[in-house]
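Researcher: Please predict.
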Amino acid sequence: MGEGNDRAVFLAAHDVSRETQDRLDRVINTLDEWRVRSNLIGPREWPNIWQRHVADCLQLMDHIPEDARVVDLGSGAGFPGLIIAAARPAGHVTMIESVGKKTNFLRAAISAGDLSASVVQGRVESAETVPADLVTARAFAPLPKLLDYAAPWMKKGATGLFLKGERWEEELTQARQRWSFAYEAIPSRSGGSGVVLIIRELQGGD
């Protein structure tokens, strides 16, 4: 399936506004320009970029208020940070990424999409704890380590909103050996046995 057909199938299955779709198109077009020279996303992933990656991230919008302040950890190629920023223009997304070529891409995509977002280049554990309502991540780290990274924001009241794969229950068990928290696991609409994992009231870890 080509990228055009992939986009058409995505649009048929998802009710997004014309303005949001325009911003998403600009983000994905920028990714297309950068992906080969910067190895941002594998060639096998590209034909399903809309259905596999964009759609996966869009399911987070059910849990993100219109004006939310979001911190996205290890933003990489912009999933979910850029997708959230495209879908929530009244909010703000701070993306933290340590790799220079990836931060350059993220800034280019933010500019192309005219997104309410910013990029911090550096390691997550060294980043300033900017005010946030939500902390997000996708394919960044196993949950025990992810909570280490997210703790500075979550201990100030932010909610963790993480896309997790099929090993999420194993990761959850490991995380609860060090942390205390309330959680909700919502089956992923992207298929498989992954979940949207919502974590609140984080305590412990010291």
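Model: The chain has a mean pLDDT of 94.
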